[in-house]
Write a structure and sequence with these properties.
It is flat, with a radius of gyration of 33 Å. The longest helix is centred in the first third of the chain and has 14 residues. It is 43% helix and 5% strand. The N and C termini lie far apart (69 Å). The chain has a domain of 66 residues: Arc Repressor Mutant, subunit A (Orthogonal Bundle). The chain is mainly alpha-helical. The protein has a two-stranded antiparallel ribbon with strand order 1-2. It is built from six helices and two strands.
């Protein structure tokens, strides 16, 4: 049984405001309602200090590891455009769709530079099963006929 499957249509002729009669029985019901919602607080007296003490740390281990990794990799430097294109085409031979983050990891190129190249050779899917992934434009896909075959045909 669905409560929302039934609808009521009509027009309002008169407006009415209802207020309960403030009596002892009503106040008792309201008091019980408020007490049932209140969180139960528990006070305990401890006989000794708690032994597990968490001291503040200036920089956590995982942050230090991340910084070391970043320093060892160094700053991303723009590689030759043809090298980046070769890396991208070899990656797209393995899979048809890649997230942009994966493409950055594969090529190790700055985001703006890679996005500039990808806009020329690829399209970003905005909808469907492969949402927010990049694929090559039809003219760059490896299963298209090569340029030599296209020139031979009239």
């Amino acid at each position: 049984f669905n409560l929302f499957s039934h609808f009521l249509e009509g027009t309002v002729l008169h407006r009415a405001e209802c207020r309960p009669v403030v009596s002892d029985s009503y106040m008792k019901v309201k008091r019980l309602q408020v007490e049932s919602v209140k969180p139960r607080r528990l006070v305990q007296q401890l006989d000794r200090a708690v032994a597990t003490v968490f001291k503040p740390v200036a920089n956590h281990d995982f942050n230090l590891e991340y910084e070391k990794k970043k320093k060892s990799e160094g700053k991303m430097v723009r590689a030759d455009r043809q090298q980046v294109l070769d890396l991208l085409f070899s990656a797209f031979e393995k899979h048809q769709y890649y997230s942009f983050k994966d493409l950055v990891d594969i090529t190790k190129q700055p985001v703006t530079y890679l996005k500039e190249i990808m806009r020329e050779i690829g399209v970003c899917n905005r909808k469907g099963a492969h949402k927010c992934t990049w694929e090559l434009k039809p003219e760059y896909r490896h299963y298209q006929p090569s340029e030599e075959e296209e020139q031979k045909s009239p």
